[in-house]
Amino acid sequence: MVVGMDESKVGVDEEQHYDISSDECDTPAGVLSSKFDKTDLSINTNPLPHGKYTLIGLDIDTTGRRLIDEIVQISAFTPEKEYAQYIMPLMNLNPAARQRHQVRVITVGFFRMLKSMQTY
């Protein structure tokens, strides 16, 4: 059904016509649906124009997947350069995060620092 337009003036094939009157969603929460809006033309299928492009890979490591977890490392890689920066978290790392990143928090007096478990 086309709303607000005269259907006789709209060139819609029968194959492309679909019913949007149903508000129910039969897809369970957390599952991607294979249904999509056929009128969405925002997908650009044209290839990129010829030019000089640089591919950059990014990686962000966190202490976990919860909302209170923190970023502990940001790294980027290009064919010519690479960058990695550790970030001192406010809280001590949990055992799983220490093992995954091979770092531990060392406290010396009033100072805290990250120490690599590979070189310590």
TrEMBL record:
<dbReference type="GO" id="GO:0003723">
    <property type="term" value="F:RNA binding"/>
</dbReference>
<dbReference type="GO" id="GO:0042803">
    <property type="term" value="F:protein homodimerization activity"/>
</dbReference>
<dbReference type="GO" id="GO:0045450">
    <property type="term" value="P:bicoid mRNA localization"/>
</dbReference>
<feature type="domain" description="Exuperantia RNAse H-like">
    <location>
        <begin position="53"/>
        <end position="120"/>
    </location>
</feature>
<dbReference type="Pfam" id="PF22123">
    <property type="entry name" value="Exu_RNase_H_like"/>
</dbReference>
<dbReference type="InterPro" id="IPR037998">
    <property type="entry name" value="Exu"/>
</dbReference>
<protein>
    <recommendedName>
        <fullName>Exuperantia RNAse H-like domain-containing protein</fullName>
    </recommendedName>
</protein>
<dbReference type="InterPro" id="IPR054362">
    <property type="entry name" value="Exu_RNase_H-like"/>
</dbReference>
